[in-house]
Amino acid sequence: MWENLQILGTAPVFNVQLLLNGLTIGAVFALAAYGLALVWGVTSVKNLAQGDFVMMGGYLGYELSRHGVHPIVAIVPVAAIMFGYGWLIYRLIIRRVIQLDLFTSLLATFGLAITMQQAMNLAFGPDVRTVKSGFGRFELFGGMVDITQIRVIAFGLCIALAVAMILFLRKSRMGQAIRATAQDPRAARVLGVNTDRVYAMTFSINAAICGAAGVIIAMIWVLQPFYGIAYSVRAFVIVTAAGLGNFTAVIVTALGLGVIEQYSGFVLGAQFQQATVVGLLLAILIWRQIQLRRHRQALQ
Amino acid sequence: MTRRSLALHLAILAAGIAAPFLFPAHAVQFAVFWVFVLFSLTWDTMGGQMGYNSLGNITFFGLGMYICAIVQIGLVYNVGEYTAATGAIKVDFTDQQYFAGLALGLVLAGVGAVIVAAILSWILFGLRGPYFAIGTLGVAIAAAELTSAWGWVGGGSGIAMPVFPGGPGMRERFFYAACMVAAMLCYLFLRWLYGTRFSLAINAIRDDEDKAEALGLHTARYKMVAWSVSAFFLGIAGALFGNMTGFIEPLETAYPTLTFGIFMVAMTLLGGKGTLWGPVVGATLFYTLREVTWTYLLGWQYIALGVLIIVNVVYFQQGIMGWLKTRKPHWFGVRVEGKPAASAGTDSRA
Amino acid sequence: MKRLVTHSARLGAAIAVALAFGAPASAADDVITLGSAISITGKYSQEGKNASDGYNFAVKRINEMGGVKVGGKTYKLEVKYYDDESTPARTAQLLERLINQDGIKFVLGPYGSGPTKAAAPVTEKYKIPMVEAEGASRSLFTQGYRYMFAALSTSDQYLSPVIDLAAELAQKSGKKPADLKIGMAFENDPFSLDVRDGVVEEAKKHNMKIVVDDKMPRDLSDISATLTKIKALKPDIIVFSGHTKGATTATRQMKEMDVNAPVVAMTHCESAKLTTQFGAASEGILCPTQWAETLKYKDGVFGTAMDYNKAFLAAHPEYKIVPYQVAQASAVIEIWADAFRRAGSLDTEKLRDALAKTEMETFYGHIKFSEVGNNIAKPMVLRQIQGGNYVVVAPTKYASEPVVYPRKAPQ
Q1: Of B347, B272, B329, which is closest to residue B2 (Cα–Cα)?
Q2: How far, in Å, are A259, B263, C252, C264 from residue C259 at the CA level?
Q3: Complex ipTM above 0.85?
Q4: Residue C1 has pLDDT above 60, yes or no
Q5: Does A290 touch chain B (CB under 8 A)?
Q6: What count of CB pairs under 8 Å joins B to C?
Q7: Which among A184, A213, B112, C21 has most CB atoms closer than 10 A?
């Protein structure tokens, strides 16, 4: 471990490599976390199937690319299809668990996750799949640091999507309705907001965001029916750390997580990468708890 | 205990004892059934009775498995060497060594699990609701990852367990009996526990924790004890399961969060949480369904499971026992005059 | 309450009875049923499919050729599968079921060293012979199992020839082998860690230094942190083993991050379909293989290795090349057929002895079992991806082409 730290010290250019890799993958995590936070904040449903939505989007993008559609172009139709899928799932499942206790919603989405994973496995097989984006590579610092162009494009897309979401929520009527419902569903209903519609929209928008993230993943990482869980776990970590209300915090936290993961993989070894993510989750939860305890004591 | 209830219990006991003799080829399968019963009973203590839904109870299962393995091997050989050779050294356990190791291993598995539960309680019980669930899931995943990275216990290569002395028939029956006894002891213990004030306390925590604290209940203590009880039995179950399987490794055998870890929850919900018989009924049904779908719906079994969970959770929250209580309250010793009771019987024993 | 329990008890009993008696007998009529618990789902489902495709292909061919003659009677072969979900615990349980409930007396191995490690004690305990070809871990052969026979070469032999080859090439170009540095990453599972042991031992023999030694967790699809380290430390030899997923991720990310070394080797190239998926980016990678279609083996069932290759590809258009996992599975069936013939009986003890005396050539390679069950007559072969094809480069007596060294970074 110390030798690895030494490398970072003596050749600081590799810090740049770790940073770039971390930021670009963090941007994708941000999308997944963003959707999760949205659904969680508005409907209180914690979607354990988030990562599987991402995978499904990825597979749809893969299918489209096999029929000649370039993946970047495919993002739009995939998002649309996933939107419809989200609506369907809302009508069939989510709508009935919203009023119930929070753990029930967790379990319902978990059942959904299992079903989706297996369905994708049956449909696409267990092979690991990727989609070629056809782009090249940027070389910096004389070839010491490499970043594929598609990753940079992906980063840009993620940020663009995030900004679009923020604007949508702030400016459009539906966005306002969503925010109102998140604040107080009963008051919103009293004021004439169709909360059922709002919930459906929120869930479907989340599915669409995940779908877009999935297509990006297909280009920069890999698709496999059972890999969704990795994104679900990271999304939860990010949302737990950043809180529900502040979407910029979600994005920043996500980027931070991506970078931390890269560093831990480099310094400690790749076998600790997943453990680091989970360890962070626990640390955050405990810190939260300590904060709350202080809060409670202050009230007493 | 009513006469009818006693008859029921004895009938099940008789069936349990007879099963491995009537169907000797199924002994290992039936042993897994008892492990499932234990899973749901222990989960219900936390989730059903106390309202703390844990997604990480499987941590104690794996912990017990590993502790027992280390004790069994460590009494005779150097654990580090044994695991480093990944089975490449020839080992020989005498009968005495095996059983002594197993006995001690079981005890330490239970005790070790309790200690870890106590520590985890201190860390995690400040969390509420879904955060607690996610936190426990995180612990289970972390346990799997860290065990994978720990060379002394074999890391990703796992540990080959000592071989059971005695002929083939004996081994199955031994472990079947052990699992059955463990599950029954767990049931009897919980049955007693749910009749004491302790159960009233944890039910109070479930119903409204802040009020319970305001009334002077040391909720932290009760929570820790409840989790320790679950941990104890899970640790023992893990130790038995590890020996039964013969080869253990962290991700799938010891800490299978996405299979056994979730089965625990699904089974209890299916049967009806918060009752004593709910987990048992749920485990029985779930287990049977699983064996049937795994054989005849190959490739689709997880879809069937996922759909089952969804349907159960969305359309059928009260579970089978809950449903039965509303439909046939007189089975539960509740006499209904005129209108049926609004909430099901107060007697949680069948 | 009582009624409910009685009902469920009756139901449970009925199901149990149905399961017990509904299974086909093992060696009745004119069919010999072989049993296998294999990874139909789970993380090894792709490799499990390769293996079951290999089993089925050989069974079909042998049945077409008239079946197996045992004593005076001719039998057709058939395989009963269960899904072990790539989980060792499940493999053991399902084998118990195959042997106890389904009456199977002849077992085909599961996929993977972990599941095979769980399976071996079971077959040993019930004295049921198992022929396997997908569990290569060395530790399987140190327990003195008498009922397990493995057709494949053991895992420690996978990548150690690469180290030897690198030492040889270094010497030829005037460098000292002890100056060579190795950068490696392995998946954290029994097989890959065994492969790693082989590499570490070989490196020690040549006094080479290992500068990067990472273990990839099983659920990870990203090794960029490891590759950054490799870029920083510039080893002369890069070695990866992470099953199919590891090969895919490594090749892709190596290209993306422009990581290269004079010698690059990884396992599972063929099942990862490197040449079709990555084209030029996979050039020059060394791939150990248990079998190559260009090798000059032949037998009476499939003909030469090349004949087998052609026939399998024709029957399975979804494959572009035949991974060795498929070939060795077919070899398992051939070994069983040969043992049935020689034993002249379906008695498990006679079959076990017949298996132990196996000495045959198959399209897959020579088969001869040591006392502890591993195949001592077939070496691992190293191939290199040259011009989009896998070309045998080592050991020299089997080589079709010389090795391309050093590997040039693909553009």
Answers
A1: B347
A2: 20, 44, 10, 10
A3: no
A4: no
A5: yes
A6: 144
A7: A213
Burial B72-100 (b: 16+ CB within 10 A, else e): bbebbbebeebbbbbbbeeeebeeebbeb
- Taking the CB of residue A186, how many other CB atoms lie within 10 A of it? 9
> Which tokens is B41 given?
């009973």
How many CB atoms neighbour CB C303 within 10 A? 15
d(CA B162, CA A83): 54
Band of the pLDDT at B330, cuts 50, 70, 90?
Answer: confident
Interchain CB contact of A263 with C (< 8 Å): yes
Interchain contact C35–B (C-beta under 8 A) = no
Mean pLDDT of B33-44: 94
* 3-class SS of residue C302: coil
Is C24 a residue whose pLDDT tops 70? no
CATH of the domain at A22: 1.10.3470
Is A111–B313 a contact, with Cβ atoms under 8 angstroms apart?
yes
Cβ contacts of residue A80 below 8 Å, gap of 6+? A208
Q: Which residues 194-213 in chain A show a CB within 8 A of chain B?
A: none
Tell me the pLDDT tens digit for each residue of A106-141: 888 888 998 999 899 889 887 778 888 777 777 877
Instruction: Count CB atoms within 10 A of the CB of residue C344.
Output: 14
Q: Which domain holds residue A120?
A: 2-299
pLDDT above 80: residue A57: yes
DSSP E strand boundaries for C4-104: 31-38, 68-70, 73-83
Do residue C41 and residue B299 have CB atoms under 8 angstroms apart? yes
- Interchain CB contact of A119 with B (< 8 Å): yes
- The reply to whether A113 touches chain B by the CB within 8 Å rule is yes
User: Domain tally for chain A?
Assistant: 1
What pLDDT does residue C409 have?
A: 81
C268-301 residue pLDDT tens: 998 888 888 888 889 999 999 999 888 888 898 9
User: Model confidence at C7, in pLDDT bands (50, 70, 90)?
Assistant: very low
CA atoms within 13 A on the CB side of A75: 19
DSSP single-letter state for residue A91 = I
pLDDT at B347 over 60: no
Tell me how far CA of residue A21 lies from CA of A14, A145, A228, in angstroms. Answer: 11, 10, 20
C-beta atoms of B156 and C190 within 8 A: yes
Q: Give the integer Cα–Cα distance in Å for B213 and B206.
A: 12
This prediction's pTM: 0.79
Fill in the amino acid letter for B319.
Answer: G
Give the residue-averaged pLDDT of B209-222: 87
- Give the integer Cα–Cα distance in Å for C188 and C220: 11
Q: What separation, in Å, do the N-terminal and C-terminal C-alpha atoms of chain A show?
A: 46
Ordered domains of chain C (ranges, CATH): 25-155+295-368 (3.40.50.2300), 157-292+381-398 (3.40.50.2300)
